[in-house]
Amino acid sequence: MDILLLGPPGAGKGTQGAILATRLGIPKFATGDLLRDAVRRGTALGQEAKAVMEAGHLVSDDIILGVVREELAKPEAGLGVVFDGVVRTVPQAEGLGTLLAESGRQIDFVLFFDVTDEEILERLAKRRAVEQRADDDPDAIRNRLSAYRDLTRPVLDWYEARGVVHSIHAIGSIDAIAARVREVVGA
Ligand code: AMP
């Protein structure tokens, strides 16, 4: 089963994606985690992505689709993947669709994590205090939210036209939200 998590930064995709992936016994793949790791290790990918990420802008579609292709080629990805923050532009949605179709797959569910702007700002400020992520500073947050509004929000319409979107009310306890996800996915 292939599941895509969509929603603004701080919506809880990472937390809920990990719970869901464990329950389904499939990997969770987050381009944000992979890129942060590449930056930490100073690889060519990391060097290319670092400044863009720290400013809160989006990494290019070509880079993202390249890493998605590599991920999908791994044997453990053969039965399905929880894609966390992997698609943030319409060309990425199209590209992921093409890559999955190569092995007769498609996105089965898009879970849209619905939260208010006030809640997001509050959560990101708290996360900054705990994780010290460079892109949780106020300027970068502003850029990330505007990238979300301008480039990622249209992805929701793209999938809605394909009838696979389920909205998850993403405010409440981790357990309560996990239960809502479970109800949608049915496992
Ligand atoms: P995240 O941890 O998901 O918030 O991602 C952190 C940062 O990595 C984002 O603000 C972007 O700079 C970059 N990034 C992660 N995934 C993508 C993607 N699918 N497309 C473009 N940039 C991405």
Helix residue percentage: 55-70%
Give the total of beta strands: 5
Shape: globular
Low-confidence stretches are none
Radius of gyration: 16 Å
Structural class: alpha/beta
Number of helices: 8
Order of helices and strands, N to C?
A: EHEHHHEHEHHEH
Specify the CATH homologous superfamily of the domain at 2-27 and 81-182. P-loop containing nucleotide triphosphate hydrolases
Biggest beta sheet summary = 5 strands, parallel
How are the strands ordered across the major sheet? 2-3-1-4-5
In CATH, what is the class of the domain at 2-27 and 81-182?
Alpha Beta
Mean pLDDT, all residues: 95
CATH topology name of the domain at 2-27 and 81-182: Rossmann fold
Q: What fraction of residues sit in β-strands?
A: 5-15%
Distance between the termini: 11 Å
Chemical compounds bound to the protein: adenosine monophosphate
What does this structure look like?
Helix content is 58%, strand content 11%. By secondary structure, it is α/β, with parallel strands linked by helices. It has a domain of 128 residues: Rossmann fold. The protein has a five-stranded parallel beta sheet, sandwiched between helices. It is globular, with a radius of gyration of 16 Å. The model has no long low-confidence stretch (mean pLDDT 95). Adenosine monophosphate (AMP) binds next to helix 2 and helix 3.
In short:
With 187 residues, the protein is an alpha/beta fold. It is built from eight helices and five strands; from the N terminus they run βαβαααβαβααβα.
